[in-house]
Amino acid sequence: MTANRQDEPLHYPLPSSGPLTPPAEWPELRQKCPVAPVTLPSGDRATLLTRYADVRLALSDPRLSREGLARPDAARITASESGSVFDSPMARALNAEGHERWRRMVGRWFTAKRMRALIPKIEATADRLVDDMVAHGQPADLVPWLAFPLPVFVICDMLGVPERDRDDFKRWSDAFLSISTYPADEVRSAQTRFAEYMSGLIEEKRRDPRDDLISELLAATDAEGRPMSDLALAATGQALLLAGHETTAGFISSLTATLLADRTQWERLLNDPSLIRSAVEEVLRHEPHGGFGMLRYVHEDTEVPSGAVLPGGTTVVCSMAAANRDADAFEHAEDLDLGRSPNAHLTFGVGPHSCLGQPLARTEMQTVLGVLLRRLPTLELAVDPAGLRRLEGQLTTPLVELPVRW
């Protein structure tokens, strides 16, 4: 494997040997071929970046953009006409609104101060869910009892979305994030129905505004006094529901599984709860199944720190998970160090397109972990860690189940 690899491109995403282990190719790719040709599920060719410095530049340099993925020569993740989440009608609606403008209008809701104010409610919800799980008896699957419903309750409350509809948007979200799990007609139908649902909810909020994010965005204007378009409002609701429950639910289950797979890590937190914040950051860094990665379109020839030049017209896949284990960026990068500091991982991206909801995800993960340590100190996996399963064929690969006992 060389820096200008000419043999058959790897098929991406790369498989791994276990639910908590990274792809075997990562170390060699970072060392010998950090800019590697890959074939996406669509059959299109792209370029995979695995070094920390390269990924960081690609995510923050204006010569590479997310908006460029709508170009006809950009690589597609899937061959479906409905596209992936990166080139879906939702993504196009947000891009048309103007990213900086959209981020300024929505971002005021996702400040660290606002998130801290949510902690008592998140903690009370987590306690109630743990009560229900304990009453159900052991062993229990942590995913449906806690990891999935908690972020659903939180994001529904923030957006003003009826929690009773969670099964619908769970189904739509799964189809939205599909690489190969759902046929094209189901993906297209899910995208349409999800958009129609959000449009209907926006009309309800317009008639009867409440104390929630959608109602506030309906009344908000930008610096020039312009409101957000209805298409962008619907797309915003979709995007926040997608990220606000699907991704965070996966983070919570992976966090718990990682800490329980080597129970000395759990014991360390029991003995020193002050490590909860840094432990969450370290698991976010160390997690090898953080998703597909982020795509960027190269608008002009761009040299990356590893020395390779990305030609204009290239689509790159930024593997934040691979970059997070780069020994040039993190000492003992393969080790899980719950006290690691500083920890400038790239899990939430970097630059103007970094994850808007990362303060919320962090708050939920820290709060849930604190509740589990307090309520269920004897918590342990009810299966061998190697027996856990990931959801395949999706842009995100959360654990299918997480059997635990206490």
Lay out the secondary structure.
Elements: E1 10-11, H1 26-32, E2 35-39, E3 45-49, H2 52-60, E4 64-65, H3 89-97, H4 99-107, H5 112-117, H6 119-136, E5 140-141, H7 142-147, H8 149-159, H9 166-176, H10 184-207, H11 213-219, H12 230-261, H13 263-271, H14 276-286, E6 294-298, E7 302-303, E8 309-310, E9 315-318, H15 320-323, H16 358-375, E10 380-381, E11 403-405
Parallel strand pairs: 1-2, 3-9
Antiparallel strand pairs: 2-3, 4-6, 5-11, 6-9, 7-8, 10-11
Overview features:
406 residues; alpha+beta; 6-stranded mixed sheet; 3-stranded antiparallel sheet; 16 helices; globular
Describe this structure in words.
The chain is α+β, with helices and mostly antiparallel strands. It is 47% helix and 8% strand. It is built from 16 helices and 11 strands. α1 links the parallel β1 and β2 (35-39). α6 packs across α16 and α8 runs antiparallel to α12 (230-261). The protein is globular and about 55 Å long.
